[in-house]
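Morning run. Coffee first, then this:
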Amino acid sequence: MSAPTKYVYEFAEGSRDMAALLGGKGAGLAEMTRLGLPVPPGFTVTTEACKVYLATGEEPDELGVEAAQALAGLERTMGRTLGAPDDPLLVSVRSGARFSMPGMMETILDIGLNDESVAGLAKASGQERFAWDSYRRLVQMFGRTVMGVDGDLFEQAIAAHKAKRAVATDHDLDTAELVALTEEFKDIIRKETGEDFPQDPTEQLARAIRSVFDSWNVERARVYRHREHIPDDLGTAVNVQAMVFGNLGNDSGTGVAFTRDPATGERGVYGDYLPDAQGEDVVSGVRDALALSELKTLDPRAYLELGDHLRTLENHYRDLCDVEFTVERGKLWILQTRVGKRTAEAAFHIAHDLREEGTITADEALMRVDGAALTRLMFPRFDTTPSDVPLAHGVPASPGAAVGAVVFDSAEAVRRAAAGEQVVLVRRETTPDDLPGMIAAEAVLTSRGGKTSHAAVVARGMGKVCVCGAEALSVDPVARRVTTTSGVVVHEGDTVSVDGTAGTVHLGALPLTASEVGRALETGASTDPVTEAVLGALAHADSVRRLEVRANADTPEDAARARALGAQGIGLCRTEHMFLGERRALVERMILARDDTAREEALAALLPLQREDFTGLLDAMDGLPVTIRLLDPPLHEFLPDRTDLAVRLASAAHPDPHDRELLHAVERMHEQNPMLGLRGVRLGLAVPGLMAMQVRAVAEAVIDRLGAGGRPRAEIMIPLVGTVEELRLARAEAERVLAEVAAETGTRLDCPIGTMIELPRAALTAGRIAEAADFFSFGTNDLTQTTWGLSRDDAEASFFPLYLEKGVFAVSPFESIDQEGVGHLVELAVRAGRAVNPRLETGVCGEHGGDPDSIHFFHHAGLDYVSCSPFRIPAARLEAGRAAVADRSGTSDTR
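And here it is:
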């Protein structure tokens, strides 16, 4: 028979290892008690009690008895009784979830005060004003938090009293005003709720505990959990603690201290102190706090003692600690400690310093930082906080900061950029035709789309600043202007500033500062301490990671940058990007060819251009693998828009026969759902000569590089395979061409041939497909679409926000891999493929290849590499190292 569940723990019974049960705050109080720090005594009601309450609407039967016993023990320790008429014990009731949720749930102070005990508190303290100020605070907090009274009613009453006395702060109200204010508060409660403020201290305590439980599900707490990916089923603990008072005069006060600067990571004690105040006064900002260093003058003994405790806590937790404290008539009390939140800069600086000091190991230092923090450090940023209201907010799709003149089409972006002007490309949404303009622009801004729209994906791949889905903008490319919902009109040529980190756009030029980290990652050298810390963390990550990190790159320039950032090859070269721009006419010739001869002539014209492309990529990645995906999208994407063609023909006095021919081709090739139509391997098998031309271009590029003394490692990837028969046919054609080029040149060619797994059927039949594949590359963008039955861009623009709000998704499955569904298919395919071909290489080249959480999953799934856009490579390297360390230490937490 199992032991009965224990729902209440005195601080002395717990430890830091019990955060799941006692919450982060309760575990911290328990640990400090064990360390002998001056912690006001108390007890913690566990998260398990909260779970029972949330599930049933009632506290566990045992909770009342256990809480009463713990309260009796607290009363014995303090030598006072809760709410006694003379010298009463008062307690605070605070929330404390496992993961920090600052300000999201409730706190009630001064439980135990009533119309009788307020006089006892006044007598025992010798300060009548202090007693009534404490009672006023309790009635206000209890009325708002526990009894559901609108907090503005209390604030209006306070404001009226301050106006009457012509004073600026609550602190300036005298005893008589506080007595009157307390009575007014009680009248407000009676009027709003139909009941009196409870005078029974035990009722106050019981209802306060329930209100903290209830606050787990208030709207702000739910929103915060979803934003921070905190599970909804954890519940909160409740901490009941003897009150100590910082509002007893100038020899008392309250403050917050950090063992290091949480903004920069610099060593030293940092924080704020407010004399004659309670903790809520510091947080609310009703009075200006002093620098913590001022405490050294106000109370040297308390300051020195605080410094000792801060050192004890940092040495014990081996990390930056955030500490709340109170000085009560010269006696220091420590009220809370937790590992402190910090900026990205501080995270790397502190981890590096603690490693250098020998406090933590290199592995532990690596686990103190993450790829998201590194990404924030890599991009330029605005060096001032803009005081103006942004023109619009959107989705922060690709981080960084950029300034430029507004342009509305690709050609204008290219023209102005060629003339030396910085531009921002503004579109409703982008298409592959916008690629030249996106390359030319400093930033991309769209009124539609989300984080995985075309604009977002391509911009991230190029390291361009991007804000998508700025719905407040009405883009009119014909009139060459954009209008905001507030009526502001921005014309072409006007300057805007785009903040891809915050997801905002501002009128005018805000000053930019370059990223020292971004520069140093390409050069490998810096004297900046934060940058040195980043380089050190990456060096250790590289030394321990198992996963290789490759790049998604389509040009030699992208490949060179990726290699400088640490890429170990190219995991995805999209050949369709090579058919845009001036080459579109050749693709049109191939599509419109009336016979085999005309088609072969068009393909022959494309061949040397493709060969040149591949030669440049193999040169940039000499000695490293370059995976070249054969043409994937349907051919109609290379033709003009049907509506544009029809309008052009209808409005022309003398219609161009070529336009008419193009329109017929577009109508002939029209598909209801092109994503699931004639594309990928289907296109290669259906269009004679297309696949052969691309494979020959690869083979001849390899020959060219070998002739130049290079070490080319080209790999050929067949997209959208759903059955092994497709792959066998495509492989046979590729091998035929490779053999032809080898025979023509007398050179042996070794080009592995594999496939992209992006259909559920391919994943489910991976064992068969592996019979004809040298490697698998998981295209998780399309695999997510086809597994979920979603059109990515349509879904993000319609119901995704609702699904995220309601918790259907904790995060978009296009941002972080759906481990239960899509991830399960990946694991199945890896196991089945390697069972047939133990040497099968596996990797991922979808957007998930650069996502931190997804990288940890791919490590555990046994993949050989991840491939991502060049600017995500450093973060991917870091996360691959963290995944290896977490695996070695047996922890699954990626943060």
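The longest helix spans residues 596-620. Good start to the day.
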